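Final report, Chapter 2: Outcomes

The project's central promise was a pipeline that accepts a single protein chain and returns its three-dimensional structure in a standardized token representation, suitable for archiving and comparison. That pipeline is now operational. To close this chapter, we reproduce one record exactly as it appears in the project archive, with the input sequence first and the structure output second.
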Amino acid sequence: MARQPAAMVRVMIVEDDDVTRERFARAISSDPRTTLAQAVSGGREAIAHLPAARPDVLLVDLGLPDVHGIEVIRHAERTLSDCDIIVITVFGDERNVLESIEAGATGYVLKDCSDPDLVDHVLDLRAGGAPMSPGIARMVLKRLRARGEPRPQPSAKVEAVLTERETDVLRLIARGYMHSEVAAKLAISPHTVGSHVKNTYRKLAVNSAAAAVMRATQLRLLDRP
């Protein structure tokens, strides 16, 4: 029996800058693995169109002219259970990036990322990754550590510490590597990377790579001995 072709990933773009929105829309539309569900310039318009567009991935700018992008993220989290969210951001916006993590975003790209990188980030997110531009990943981890939060006591939901390989995988994801890049760097298969990530989610009682990085950072599990 012939294998059914994979469904194209539906992407909705929320970006008020015309040049960036149109460039991202062209990148998504021109790749055979993705399709443009909607492209809008404002937060209210995005919230209004979300039910009909039903995107698999929502690309959202935080600095919208009407409703803040974080409100759009929160609305998508409440109303679309299977929608993954990527923030379109600029370097140095760490406060908003951290708030977007808490609101439900799991991927972050800089506005000047290349078209192929944008599509790769979208596909990596749907495959269970947490795509982050390396600069954003480092910035987020630095900000988390600078908070100086006390080490939380492990709850009953948190199992044994991560294995050495699980820690290696999570460290690379925290630095912004995609699953395929992690696999190449560690000389393992992408499937094995996915298995390590799933085990990490279970152990840390989280549902996304961004949450896993945050939780592991709080528990000091990524600190080198």
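Archive annotation: Strands lie at 9-14, 34-40, 57-61, 84-89, 107-110.
This record, like all others produced under the grant, will remain available to the consortium after the project formally closes.
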